[in-house]
Structures are given as structure tokens and as C-alpha cells.
Amino acid sequence: MINEEQELTQYAKDLGRKLGFLLASLNVSDETKEVFFEIIGDFNLEQIERLTEILETKFLAEQTDFIEADLIKNLEEIKKETLLKLTALNQETIKRLSV
Questions:
Q1: Contact 32, 26 (CB under 8 A)
Q2: What pLDDT does residue 67 have?
Q3: CA atoms of 85 and 53, how far apart (whole Å)
Q4: How do the pLDDT tens digits run along the chain, 99 residues long?
Q5: H-helix or E-strand containing 83?
Q6: Cα–Cα dist 84/79, whole Å
Q7: What's the confidence (pLDDT) of residue 68?
Q8: Which residues lie below 8 Å from residue 18, measured CB to CB, with a gap of 6+?
């Protein structure tokens, strides 16, 4: 019984830390964050878990968007460099064939 209670207490602490991190990471005004903190006190465990899941999904999507944008930028640079090298190679080939 005590072990279950300790596990639940630890789970609640971990969930609280996770939720706090996710709320702090939100790209919203401080006022909006304060409202979240105020209303969470009235949530039951299931509602807190659901909110945490939603915020985690949003957080991961934002992180992925950043990585994806960076990847696209890098791929565009590689494409540009490759085209320049290919153009130079084609010009050199044409020059050698013309001689």
C-alpha cells in the first residue's frame, strides 16, 4: 500500500515537472501561461494527463518544424553547390571535347 502511494506521489511529481516544462516552453504570453497555472489546480489527474499529452505533441511538432526547416535549408545549399559543380564539370567536358 505504501509502495503504491509512493509510486503515485512520484508519478504526480514527474508529471508536474513535465507539465511545468511544457507550459514554460509554450510560445504564448505570460498572461496565458498564468491562466493555465491557475486553472490546472481544478483539474483531475486524467485532465492533467490529457493536457500534458496535448502540450507534448505541440512541443514536439514545434521542435520538428525547426529541424525540418534547418534540414531544408541545408539541402537547398547542397543542391546549389552540386549544380555549380555540375555546371563547371559540363563546361570543362565541352571544352575538352571541342579541342
A1: yes
A2: 77
A3: 47
A4: 678 889 988 998 999 999 999 998 888 888 988 888 889 889 999 999 999 999 999 898 888 877 777 888 888 999 999 999 989 888 988 888 887
A5: helix 45-98
A6: 9
A7: 78
A8: 52, 56
CA-CA distance, 64 to 51, in Å (whole number)?
Answer: 20
Give CA angle at 55 (53, 57), nearest 5°. Answer: 70
For the chain, what's the residue count? 99
CA-based R_g, the chain, Å: 26
- Residue 41 phi, psi (nearest 5): -60, -25
**Closest Cα to residue 40, out of 24, 54, 52?**
52
Check residue 1 and give its pLDDT: 64
> CA 16, CA 24: separation in Å to the nearest integer?
12
Amino acid at 79: K
C-alpha cell at 52: 500534458
Task: Find how far residue 62's CA is from the centre of its chain.
Answer: 4
Q: Which residues contact 59 (CB under 8 A, 6 or more apart)?
A: 22, 25
